Fold this protein.
Amino acid sequence: MKIKNPFGKQSTSAFQTIIVSFLCIILVGTLLLLLPFATKEGNTTTFFDALFTSVSATCVTGLIVKDTATHWTVFGQAVILMLIQIGGMGVITISVGIVGLTGKKIGLRERSIMQESISAPQLGGIVRFTSFIIRTVLVIELIGAILLLPVFCKEFGAVGIWYAVFHSVSAFCNAGFDLMGVKESFSSLVSFADNAYVNIIIMLLIIIGGISFMTWQDVKEHKFHFRKYTLQSKIIIIVSTILIFVPAVYFFFFEYSDVPTGSRIIYSLFQSVTTRTAGFNTTNLDAMSDSGKVLMTALMLVGGSPGSTAGGMKTTTVAVLFLAAITVFGRKKDVKCLDRRLPEDVVRNSGAIFFIYMALFITSAAIISRIENLPILTCLFETGSAIGTVGLTLGITTSLSLPSRIILIFLMFFGRLGGLTMIYAALPSGSAEATKMPLEKITVG
């Protein structure tokens, strides 16, 4: 969408504005992380290490080349947390919120950019919706921090307050950054693997953050009257529920069969939830079977829901592709869902998004595999984690060469902004077709 000004000149598109905003935040974050007091004594940070960290935080991914707990000072960790918060809520959301607090009028251009930024279906009520997003995020993160406080303060003392805030924000924004330090080549919440209380809180924060803000607005307005929800909210809830419990069943029976039942349930549910863009882990991923790693990679690619803090192809994209396949198999014309017909452009967009993600995901993995001489499955896991903005890794991130890290930086940025946003920003808007070309069928399949 482009907004023309009164002088007849065409302004920057909303998509380009969103991308430039993210790039500016990433640059500022990089410069702040390069400051001497951002790192602990004896640690040094190169420009590309700071850039990688800034991109990973802003794009709420969680892949790291420097351990967050041991490399960065409290200031550096605060910078990372700020980037996570901005990246999770969206640069435009925060900007519009600040403008609203100052009492300044928010014009049509800002409203249109906001609409594209949060994937809202309409322009009306966008400022009010922005206010709802900001209030919801802050309240939920505060509640999460308060709930985590007793456990972390008992474990770490007064610094547990900072730990509770950091992990609450990181979990809700689906970022996956942690302050637990590296343990046996993998980090995250391993020491709390059998703590059901911490696991449940983190999982709830991840799920709430990964579901569209529009869905939560539906819940607020219609309570639990599911039939009154919008079609998008219904699809998001149904698909998200399936993608949480079905993989958990697989993990329970095939990946954690050698641990007690209680731990199996916690491990399986947490692994299923965190794989969808969150990036925390409570068990050693290297111990997973190849089939388990493939399933996790697929879940990472799907990601969360549109208009949320999560990345990936999105649950709605996968749902539309599945429904389109069912339509083809049934030799029907229209793609239908819950007594509604889906527009053709939605089906086309879903196919385009799937193609873009798969092409980048596979091609990038193949390139990294050749550069680093690593197994292709390991590289697919890494690129799936990057483009899905997840942050899970099999332990290769810190050992990758600069070219491979640059590839991951691009994938993280692409995954957070979204395929169509990047394409629409790069290509000129299509003009209406005056004439149609002759029609001729080809055989596919």
Remarks:
- Residues 126-156 form the longest helix (31 residues).
- The first strand starts at residue 336 and ends at 337.
